[in-house]
Specification:
eight-stranded antiparallel barrel; eight-stranded antiparallel β-barrel; 365 residues; mainly beta
């Protein structure tokens, strides 16, 4: 009898140990797509001449709840994507993009929402002599984002599955170099997926976290910088510097709200003011206007493992020169290194009009 219980104990131990080991399963999927460029700006209407086509190839790492954040978000996938898009316009050329992405699941894991952020290369950017028709892409390297909503079935037969849905693919250099009218492509996509080592697929581990979560108010100091250009082509690229201070309060394990202030030192604006004062005297710009700005903002931060997604809405309280209106917004990603230090890549804009991509570092105390 003693030997029997020893054997049972050993089997239970082996079973629990196996459950505690992440199988590191992943899928590969491919989607082909067909769509249209959306006319978000009438200035690009001459570039919408046909229906873009392409494909999306993706690696997706599965999660099963071995880390607390995984069950918090219904066991999402994380991974990497490659997107090829033929813009079907000789002035726009072709785009090649690399992305990091998350897949989030709904409706018994049949509905899949993916959000990806990355960098793209375009084969035929604006050139004042050879391609002045392309006023959408001012540089060959661009920031790019895509969102995908799929009805998805995995492991239907020996690891193979299918999916179909819609996507939106955005390309912009965020005024790193003019012109920058950007493009948004709406597409229909269909494809297949394959789960490697599908026989090792296991049950999801239920969350063991306490529902209530409290954290004291935290104080953040951030410094952001980068290079951008105004909409005046060839006026020049200039650095900018932003100092931000804000407080945040965690509402739960997922979310925090923010309140703070920004101080902007944007040298492109200094040059733009001077340009208007010299080239367009009818605008009544003296050239002595202060190019610095101060804004206050409210925001939200969504925590996903060591990453977080931030969105902020601001208002300039010190606004000596009128540029794109007093309301601004910022969206982007943060990556925490330990409990206090973070890095960030964010897009600052006025409505849908991008001003700059900001690269930042900060501390949260």
């Amino acid at each position: 009898m003693k030997r029997f219980f020893n054997c049972v104990f050993c089997l239970l131990f082996i079973s629990v140990s196996a459950q505690e080991e992440d199988p590191k399963l992943f899928t590969l999927d491919v989607n082909t797509f067909y769509g249209t460029i959306l006319e978000h700006n009438p200035d690009i209407s001459h570039l919408i001449t046909d229906h873009p086509t392409g494909f999306i190839l993706s690696y997706n790492r599965k999660t099963f709840g071995f880390k607390n954040w995984e069950s918090r978000y219904n066991y999402p996938d994380w991974g990497f994507s490659f997107v090829y898009q033929d813009m079907k316009n000789r002035f726009l050329g072709e785009n090649y993009g690399l992305y990091a992405h998350y897949n989030f699941y709904f409706l018994k894991r049949n509905l899949n929402f993916r959000i990806g952020q990355g960098i793209a290369y375009t084969t035929n950017p604006y050139d004042k002599e050879t391609n002045f028709i392309n006023n959408a892409y001012g540089s060959d390297l661009m920031s790019t984002t895509y969102a995908m909503l799929n009805y998805k079935k995995e492991n239907i037969f020996k690891g193979f599955g299918v999916q179909a849905g819609i996507s939106v693919i955005h390309y912009s250099n965020a005024n790193f170099r003019a012109p920058n009218n950007s493009t948004n492509t709406f597409v229909f996509n269909v494809g297949a997926n394959y789960l490697f080592d599908y026989e090792k697929e296991q049950d999801y581990i239920p969350s063991s976290e306490e529902k209530k979560y409290k954290e004291k108010i935290k104080y953040n100091l951030a410094f952001r910088s980068g290079v951008n250009e105004s909409d005046i082509i060839d006026i020049g690229q200039y650095p900018f510097y932003i100092v931000s201070a804000y407080a945040d309060k965690r509402l739960n394990r997922k979310s925090a709200i923010q309140v703070g202030a920004d101080v902007f030192f944007s040298k492109f604006l200094k040059e733009l003011i001077y340009f208007y004062s010299v080239a367009f005297p009818e605008l009544n710009v003296s050239g002595d206007e202060d190019w610095k700005r101060v804004g206050v903002f409210v925001g939200h931060e969504l925590f996903i493992n060591k990453m977080s997604f931030i969105s902020q809405l601001g208002y300039y309280v010190y606004y000596p020169y009128d540029f794109e209106g007093r309301v601004y917004n910022r969206i982007g990603l943060k990556r925490y290194f330990g409990d206090k230090i973070f890095g960030a890549i964010t897009l600052k804009s006025h409505g849908a009009k991008a001003e700059a991509v900001e690269f930042g570092i900060g501390i949260r105390l």
